[in-house]
Structures are given as C-alpha cells and as structure tokens.
Amino acid sequence: MHSLVASISASLPRVICADLDSCHNNKMLPTYSYQGVLRYYRDYYCLACQVKLETESNVIKHICEESHEAKFADTNYVVAEENIRKINEWYHCEMCNRALKSFASVKLHISEKNHITTKVKLVARRDASGTMCVHDVEIDENSWNGLSEGSCLICDCDYTDENNHLKDATHVVNLFQRKMNVHSKYNIYRTNSTRMRSKDVKNQKK
Question: Which of 43, 60, 163, 182 has the fewest other C-beta atoms within 10 Å?
C-alpha cells in the first residue's frame, strides 16, 4: 500500500457482512462514512443514492445492495490523500464524515485543525506486533520516542538508562503534548509545544 486511501481501505472493508447481529456487535459504524453515508445523531443519509436511512440495520442492508454498490462505484476521489470523494454535487470527507458544497470549502476543510487531528488518528496505529505505523511505514520505538544515542529529542536532554527515561512522567507528558503532522507518507514530523522539565512534573505532584 502506498497511500492513505489504500491503508484505510485495508482496515475498513467495502463489503459489510450480511449478518446484522454480527455487524452490530462488532461496532462497524465507522465504515459507513467510507460508503458515502453521512451520520447525524441517530439518522443517516446516503449521498450516493440520496436516500435517508433511520436505523443502523437499514444502513447495513442498504450498503450491501447492488444498486448502492453500483452508484458508489461511479464516485471518485478528488483529493485522494485527504480522502475527499465527489459524490453527486457534494464533496465528502470520509475521515470527518462531512459533506462540503464546493471545492473552495474542501481546501479550507483540509487545513482545519479538526480534520488534521482526525487524519493523524487514522493513519497512526500499532500493528498486531505492537509496532507503531504511520500509513504503512513502520517506526521503531526509539524513533517514535525521539531517542538517539543517549539523548532524547523530545525532552531535549541526555539519559543514562533508556528504559527509565521512557517510563519517566516528564518524557511521557512531553511526548503526548507534541503535535504530530502528516503531510504525506514520508513527510511525518512533530512540532514543538510546551516542553516540561522533570522538576515541573515533580512540582505538579506536590
């Protein structure tokens, strides 16, 4: 796989199982957005077929129908790396499950904080072995934690015991506060935020 679309498609199946109880129990709701279905609280709307659906079971039945599959197959991505699909007169962001009316709105949307945050959450994951991945690129634990030859780039300090530093509250807080940006498969970076020092964490505990 070489794109956000491919990586997400691998984990979110296009064909939903016909066993409604199984689907419901497995909480497959996030896949609906990748079938062109908008959700508004407890109501749903299929952009491809332009039909309102009132229950989750109806959604599952609908996206398994040949008529839906045929209409959805006629849609295309207009900004593939952001999962923006043109469906009839709408531009649908599959990641955020939002329908946008114009391409100008699309350009604004993909620069918004909420979209960027959602995108990062979708592409950053741990695989079955526990290895951190962004898209299909594996990132070893030292790189993910900013460790390099006895120094921590996240905390801007040197350490003598790697395991102790990884468990240290200061490191964990600093890591969690770093904002991760994903511009493309191979353009992944963190931006600086407020960096805490060990004494700051200790003072907060008092």
Answer: 163
Of 117, 151, 174, the residue at which a domain comes to its end is 117
Specify whether 186 is located in the same domain as 93: no
Q: Which residues contact 99 (CB under 8 A, 6 or more apart)?
A: 38, 47, 90, 91, 92, 93
- SS3 state of residue 20: helix
- Mean pLDDT of all residues in 166-176: 90
Position 1 pLDDT exceeds 70: no
Q: Within 10 A of 19 (CB to CB), how many other CB atoms are there?
A: 11
pLDDT digits (tens, 9 = 90+) for 44-91: 999 999 999 999 899 999 999 999 999 999 999 999 988 999 999 999
C-alpha 134, offset from chain centre: 10
183 and 107, same structural domain? no
Query: What pLDDT does 129 receive?
Result: 66
C-alpha span between 34 and 47 (Å, rounded): 11
Instruction: Please give the tally of structural domains in the chain.
Output: 2
Domain that holds residue 62: 4-117
104/189 same-domain check: no
Give φ, ψ of 175 to 5 degrees: -65, -45
Q: Does this model's pTM top 0.70?
A: no
What pLDDT is recorded for position 40?
86
Other C-beta atoms closer than 10 Å to the C-beta of 162 total: 14
